[in-house]
Amino acid sequence: MAGSNGEGRTSGDGKAPSPAVDRALTVLETLVAAEEPMTLTMLAQVTDIPLATCAAITRTLELRGYAARRVIGRSHFWRPTLRLNGLAAQLVKKVDLMRTARPFLKRLVDSIGAHAHLGVLEGGEVIYVAKVAAPGMLQYDTYPGKASPFNLTALGRAIAAQLPVDAVDALVKNAAVGRGPKAHPIQVAELHAELAAVRERGYATEDEEEDPGIACVAAPFFDVDGAVAGSIGVTGYAEQLRSTGFEEIGAQVVAEAKALGRELQAGTVQLPYGM
């Protein structure tokens, strides 16, 4: 997360964000993403935030119940607490999209034999909102609440393909290079061309770019006003999906996405904030 501070950026209304809030969120996100507790020195190095500022932020998080420390000798090791889960749970209660989408995702799992997900776009990231796992299949790190760069998932590409060019340009700053064997440097013109192709065929694919051996196919769904509301798709072994055929899988995913869209357009589903 080094260099992720929002200084120098502006929000959608053209106003400058708060550097203090940006730094606090960067520290919190870094603690959540870390596999092990972190010292203040480690936090400062990873986030590129001054050590004294990291100390003030972690103490505040501790006072509010969002972080805890373990003292070993003269070192303090910081970790996040499950209070964050409580916040997420309150939000989830207000969103019934997950419940509504489950039958559509379940049909994809039963038909294709791969994990099925629903995602929404928040800033330049796709947030996994719902998941139906395929029985007997390796469980990927695609849990509800996970955030991924939009360009590294079929879910994100399916949504971005429906946005205006200037909106996509604003997302590019959050694009990332994957770890898979087919990952490649980000070229804006190439990204626009790929999204145009996605828009034309109706579904997006990602084949061993984010991670080796994994591929995904996704299609967008739309709200009552015709605006893109999110996407649904499947994630599985790359060889499995290629063997079935991206085109065949894409047709099934598109059909379920359209069916979910019709459910939304009936006006019975409350969408997550920010959509």
UniProtKB/TrEMBL annotation:
Gene3D superfamilies attached to this UniProt entry: 3.30.450.40, Winged helix-like DNA-binding domain superfamily/Winged helix DNA-binding domain
PANTHER family listed in its UniProt record: HELIX-TURN-HELIX TRANSCRIPTIONAL REGULATOR, ICLR FAMILY, HTH-TYPE TRANSCRIPTIONAL REPRESSOR ALLR
Q: Where is the IclR-ED domain?
A: 83-266
GO terms, molecular function: DNA binding; DNA-binding transcription factor activity
Q: Which superkingdom?
A: Bacteria
Supply the InterPro entries for this chain.
GAF-like_dom_sf, HTH_MetabolicPath_Reg, Tscrpt_reg_IclR_C, Tscrpt_reg_IclR_N, WH-like_DNA-bd_sf, WH_DNA-bd_sf
One GO BP on record is: negative regulation of DNA-templated transcription
**Protein name in UniProt:** IclR family transcriptional regulator
Keyword Transcription appears in the UniProt entry: yes
What stretches pass through the bilayer? none
Assigned keywords, A-Z: DNA-binding, Transcription, Transcription regulation
